Amino acid sequence: MAASANLNIMMKAARKAGRSLAKDFREVENLQVSMKGAGDFVSKADIAAEAIIKEELRTARPTYGWLAEEGGEEAGEDPTRRWIVDPLDGTTNFLHGLPHWAVSIALEHKGQIVAGVIYDPAKDELFFAEKGQGAFMNDQRLRVSGRSKMIEGLFSTGLPFGGRADLPETLQELARLMPVCSGVRRFGAAALDLAYVAAGRYDGFWERRLNAWDIAAGVLIVREAGGFAEPLNPAGDILEDGEIICANEPMFPQLAKIIRA
Asked: Domain 150-259 is of which CATH architecture?
């Protein structure tokens, strides 16, 4: 795939931030960590990675807007375009020394995600897509899985933590799904969950109470790999609501029926 100038800028920024994070990950015990909320931590590494990404993207495209986990939202001179950035998705994994976390960068144009990059430095896997151009991991074209039977399906989700009120709802969903599938995983990084659906490693994924920067790049990558992605509420909006359900084509209606019951 011949990447556009914007996608090349995004991949360069993701890799640069990833190198910085990987260095800090090797010294994770020495990181100074502050509490940002129940189960939600921020580290110097997180902030530094966002600064690297912002410098790269803003230097190349100074007129674009900005939405990111740490730095919030900034309007750009060009009101039609903005970057949506999660410098470290899977922060809790990172701080516990678990090598499952990623950098996520999306480009939004006129309300539509047109390019997305998810970089996993620990495994050196770069997932990326542009609207209408397909999805890739490094040099490999991505396609969602071809499995169609729920009993063969492997799914992923997030589990509420820190006393969140949606735990009973999630447990009910798991009780309906787990008897009819081959397994459910909770790996703690929504961006990688979506990338894994695109790569056929998972057959589907659902979660609620996410932020736009957690899922913006992943939604495009799933769709460009041939997957279906919708808000949990069919009348809703994925990025605004922070709720998503996605799967390959044959399993999507089956998974949606179980989760939306």
From this structure: 3-Layer(aba) Sandwich (3.40)
Flag whether the pTM goes above 0.85: yes
Nearest to 6 by CA among 118, 121, 132, 114: 114
Q: Angle CA(244)–CA(36)–CA(49) in degrees, nearest 5?
A: 75
Strand partners, 66: 74, 83
- Strand pairing of 204-207 and 81-89? unpaired
- The CATH number that domain 5-141 falls under is 3.30.540.10
Q: Kindly list the domain boundaries of the chain, sorted by start residue.
A: 5-141, 150-259
- CA-nearest of 72, 148, 137, 68 to 104 is 68
pLDDT by residue for the chain (261 residues), tens digit each? 678 999 999 999 999 999 999 998 888 766 666 655 544 456 788 999 999 999 999 999 999 999 998 888 999 999 999 999 999 999 989 988 899 999 999 999 999 999 999 999 999 999 999 999 999 999 899 999 999 999 999 999 999 887 788 888 999 999 999 999 999 999 999 999 999 999 999 999 999 999 999 999 999 999 999 999 999 999 999 999 999 999 999 999 999 999 999
